[in-house]
Input
Amino acid sequence: MKGGDFIKPSGKNQEGKAAWELETIRKRYIEIDTALENSFDGVMITNCKGIGIRVNPSLLRLTGLEEKHFVGKKIDHLTEKGIFAYEPITIRALREKRIITGVQEIITGKAVTVTGVPVMDDHKMVIRVITNVRDLVELNRLKEDMRKSQELLMRYQSELAALRFELMKSQHIIAQSEEMMGVLETAFHVASSDANVLILGESGVGKDIIARLLHNNSSRQGNGGFIKVNCGAIPRELMESEFFGYERGAFTGARREGKRGFFELADGGTLFLDEIADLPMDLQVKLLRVLEDREVVRLGGEKPVKVDVRIIAATNKDLEVMVAERKFRGDLFYRLNVIPITVPPLRERKEDISALLAHFLAKFNQKYNVYKSFSPEVLQILLCYNWPGNVRELINLVERIVITTRDGIIKPEHLPQSMITFSKDSPPSAILFLEQDFLREQLRSKSMRQILDKVERKILLLAFQEYKSSRKVGEVLGISHSTVINKLRKYGIRYS
Output
């Protein structure tokens, strides 16, 4: 037998069967009684006439009354004697044959939340009422504690967002879209670890910016450097010596004093391997060995050199497909792909385009000591364009037109014909007009963040004047409906 359980007797031993049933009932009673006595909530059981049968210690504690007020007494007498301010919930549940919940005020000055649950027999007649009592003050205190916790959480989240924005600003990161903010949040979160990171994304999306962010926000920033290596730009015959270094006299033309490789240069810091997919197979094997052993052997040398390096790799190619095609080593891929971060293309984060345009226009105006501005028509074209070259294409375009445009206002004829053709085939933009006077006024007295907020609010207002619907505005601006709603709330714009 386990846990004191009885084995049900078999056969025709009626006396044994009766003893077993009696013992089972006794044990069940003890279990229920123990649960009732130790319940934190107050519990009262009344019969079909509303007379108290049983109360537990918690009910006496919560009400401030004694057992004699309940057991053997009709509960409605408590109202008649002025002990309860209103008709007892128990009596209402008994009369109405349904669960009743309400607040009961007691002469002791306490107020409790009471729930009466009627128990029916097979004929739908009430045979018992189980009344549950909770301290209203305690519930209110818990609600207040929860409210304060939520307020504190919201404040911390707001402060964290502000700190991250300042951090992004200090590291020249321009982002507003939910997609890019998610990428940056992941990067900030994993920056402090030493795990290898694989950054994926099309050419020009800013993979190197994410790599630098990871290094700059880690403890390695103060211990070692950030060494960037473009694996596709190093001549194949020089790759091994560049990565692992060489000893004095290792080969003809070698430096007399030898040379440290990329791994030794990055010791204590971060080695960023850009275009990792272009690494030859033979070097992939040696790279894997370094990652596993954390040591390198220079060309012409015999003694291994210990290195402490965090690896961040990046590529615009699908390494999983390359592994399947045996063009990239699977073991190296899994070693690099500990934490994958995918940077979305600019066409999938349209909200970032206006911020990037404003930032780089201001930057190149300052660099070349000019003052150029986009016409509303140009803004409409640039915001509709799909940017196949991503952020790199945007930066190059802005710099080119700032240099080559002789007028103060950049007009559609100053843009490449391919952009104008694309905009004609694209859906209409909600950005119909942004007054130059408005922009000039903002530039005189506002920071870049404040200007962008003002412009974004104006764009949303213009969009609503034209389309009248938050969903349509989201479609036209290329952002999600939830993002539109959040921005409308942020700027206090009424929406439908």
Summary: The two ends are 69 Å apart (CA to CA). The first helix runs from residue 14 to 37. The chain has three domains: 14-139, 189-344, 347-490.
